[in-house]
Amino acid sequence: MADKDNDALMIRAMGNAVTDLQVRYRAATLDDQAVLAGPLKEMTEDYSDHVARLIKAGTITSDDELAEMASIQKSITDKASRQDLLLAIAKIIALIAAS
């Protein structure tokens, strides 16, 4: 088992990113919401399943995955475009699928 609890760190980092995406969705234009709604829903469902796996005993999150999550979080800024948000959503979905 790792010296630090990577799964706990991932729960926090991914949770923050998911929340930021949801807040950005709520502030988006109706056109952007129409494009973001489906991918955001898929990511949220995948995220819920992933958190259930992360809270079980044992560490499944690597340092590289934590670094990737930090990069994704950084890309979700106030100036992020619809395309940036879609890319962040896709990266979170891919990160979850790879775990």
Which helices and strands, and how do they pair?
Elements: H1 6-27, H2 30-54, H3 63-75, H4 82-98
Describe this structure in words.
The chain has 99 residues and is an all-alpha fold. 78% of the residues lie in helices and 0% in strands. Helix 1 (6-27) runs parallel beside helix 3 (63-75). The chain is elongated and about 45 Å long. The mean pLDDT is 92.
Provide a quick synopsis of the model.
The chain is mainly alpha-helical. The chain contains four helices and no strands.
Relevant terms:
single chain, 4 helices, 99 residues, mainly alpha, elongated
Q: Counting H and I runs of at least 4 residues, what is the number of helices?
A: 4
Mean pLDDT: 92
Global geometry: elongated
What's the multimeric state? single chain
Q: Main sheet, how many strands, which sense, barrel? A: none
Distance between the termini: 16 Å
Unreliable stretches, pLDDT < 50, 5 or more residues? none
Can you write the helix and strand succession as a string?
A: HHHH
Rg from Cα: 14 Å
Strand content: under 5%
Helical content class: over 70%
Strands, total number: 0
Would you tell me the structural class of the helices and strands?
mainly alpha
